[in-house]
Design goal:
- Helix 2 packs across helix 3.
- The chain has 196 residues and is of the alpha+beta class.
- It folds into two domains: 68 residues, lambda repressor-like DNA-binding domains (434 Repressor (Amino-terminal Domain)); 102 residues, Jelly Rolls.
């Protein structure tokens, strides 16, 4: 029976795997990365082979030399859980948004809430006679893909007419949202990602 690998050793190996992959993606030899970071080529080799536990300072200078966030060096580290959402055609959690003078239907397709990210995807249907759609201000990034129909989207002072197949992504910091539905019905996919 093989010996159990300690959690610390698994993390060291995961960091080494990520470091090697990032270094190779940038076409750097260990020597070139050593020159960029100030960490010796021998130490880089030991880290990549999971033989040492590098300090946060060492990881920080390596990440800076590779021009990636330090968290990228931990991307291969195992987690104790992950979430998966599979929504088959025609499925999803159907909901209705109601305000004083507006109503629209939407289907929640995905929702992931992690400590570092909140991600949601919805398929929304607006009706021309459903009243003025709400506008939003938030954080993160919003992606919109028009699926069917035509409507006008406002982002700050700008307006865009979206038709089936068009897409738009915006920083959610400015006031945004659909302001007019031009066809009897307008359906779109919206995806939002933000830090909690």
């Amino acid at each position: 029976m093989p010996a159990q690998v300690s959690p610390g050793k698994r993390i060291d190996r995961a960091i080494g795997t990520s470091l090697k992959e990032l270094r190779r993606q940038r076409d750097h030899s260990a020597r070139a990365l050593a020159d960029l970071s100030g960490v010796s080529a021998a130490m880089i080799s030991r880290i990549e082979n999971g033989l040492v536990s590098p300090s946060i300072g060492t990881l920080a200078v390596l990440a800076e030399a590779l021009e990636v966030p330090i968290v990228s060096l931990f991307r291969e580290a195992a987690t104790d859980h992950t979430d998966l959402t599979l929504v088959r055609h025609g499925e999803g959690l159907r909901s209705t948004r109601i305000t004083d003078d507006h109503r629209h239907e939407y289907v929640n397709l995905a929702l992931h809430a992690r400590k570092d990210l909140r991600f949601q995807a919805r398929r929304v249907t607006l009706l021309r006679d459903g009243g003025p759609p709400p506008s939003y201000v938030g954080h993160g990034v919003v992606f919109v893909q028009a699926l069917d129909g035509e409507a006008v989207y406002r982002y700050g002072q700008q307006r865009f007419t979206l038709r089936a197949g068009d897409s738009l992504s915006v920083d959610a910091e400015l006031n945004h949202g659909f302001v007019e539905v031009l066809t009897p019905e307008f359906t779109f996919l919206t995806v939002q990602a933000e830090r909690p």
